[in-house]
Amino acid sequence: MSGGKFITIEGVEGVGKSTNIALVESLIRNHGHEVLLTREPGGTATGERIRDILLDKEEQRMTAMTELLLMFAARAQHVEEIIKPALAKGFWVISDRFTDSSFAYQGGGRELGAGPVEQLENLVLSEFRPDLTLVLDVDVMTGLERATAETEADRFEMEHRDFFERVRAAFLARASLSRYRVIDAAGSIEMVQAEIGKVIEAFCRDS
Ligand code: TYD
User: Fold this and answer.
1) Ligand 1 center to residue 205 CA distance, Å?
2) Could you tell me if the CB of 13 is within 6 A of ligand 1?
3) 39 pLDDT band (50/70/90 cuts)?
4) What's the mean pLDDT in 8-16?
5) pTM over 0.85
6) Does 100 contact ligand 1 (Cβ within 6 A)?
7) Is 145:14 a contact under the CB 8 Å cutoff?
8) Which of 48, 71, 97 to mutate to test the pocket of ligand 1 (most atoms within 8 A of CB)?
9) What is the dihedral of CA 67, 68, 71, 75, to 10 degrees?
10) Mean pLDDT over all residues of the chain?
11) Region at 113 (left for phi over 0; alpha for psi -120 to 50; beta for the rest)
12) How far apart are the C-alpha atoms of 172 and 108, rounded to whole Å?
């Protein structure tokens, strides 16, 4: 159906997603592809309003299932309004987070398990999946120190270490998916970017 490719970038807080997304974007543009950058939760006007609710520290009573359903409500809109039309026009779409974050944060962190996430994935996305997923991986304490240094904590960043340990474990538990590439993000920025470069070059070559 589509000319473009769908790439998602994932990881726990503080893994350096922003810097590395910029790198992925420039590598893909160098291959002559048009790129659309987007993010979750959000990416549409409706989705950004849902995001505000999800990240709001005042939302202390939100249940894990409500949180999961809101993630997928925003995603349903994002996929139909932005992602699929862009792919159909030949754009390569890069999303800062996608469904693997729901497996990690709601399935793992909030302990809902993979079952309900899989059910919603099938309901909302049907067969639609990313073509390539980069999971930036760093130990939780390093990530949290980096993340909290940057900005004021949102509702997720207020969670404690054991929550993020479950998030990280749930990301890594999905490593056998063929579209999944786990990148060791603990080393120097040069080392991390060299590894990402190899993955993206190989993907562009084979696409
Ligand atoms: P964001 O500010 O984008 O965090 P980061 O800079 O770490 O990417 O906020 C998004 C938050 O939403 C982040 O803590 C992860 C969380 N999230 C989920 O819990 N489930 C999801 O399905 C998605 C897409 C994000």
Assistant:
1) 30
2) yes
3) very high
4) 92
5) yes
6) no
7) yes
8) 97
9) -160
10) 95
11) left
12) 11
